Amino acid sequence: MLFIGHFSFDEIDNDDRQRHGYLTCIVDAENPDDAVSQFEDHIKKMKTSAKEMVNIVNVYIEEILRFEQVPTKPIITRMQFSAGAFPASVSHSLPGVFGEGVDTFGFAPDVENHEMLNDGGYIESKPFIAFDQ
To answer: Over the Cα atoms of the chain, what is R_g?
Structure first.
């Protein structure tokens, strides 16, 4: 069965600045206990091998999703809300995954804008979908 684990984490950087973040793992496992064990092993391994994870100090299970088969139609697996304006954040897709038959894609207008800027500055993302208000 396919299991998706949504986790949150706390990190403290070298200057004692605290941040809170989220990560998602996916695995094919026999049962929930096996999936959780594999998630734990993988997160611990990634903590020592992925630069994005070296400052993590705590990881929390938000939820584990089980799929008997891969859905043939899109479903939303998680929604989360934060109070106030969009907070400053950093996102990494597939940290530590290279050439394993898994790809990540960006929304083309955002990718093109970031490539054009090429100085590390911030460009506000364009909405993928904008609803009338």
So the answer is: 17
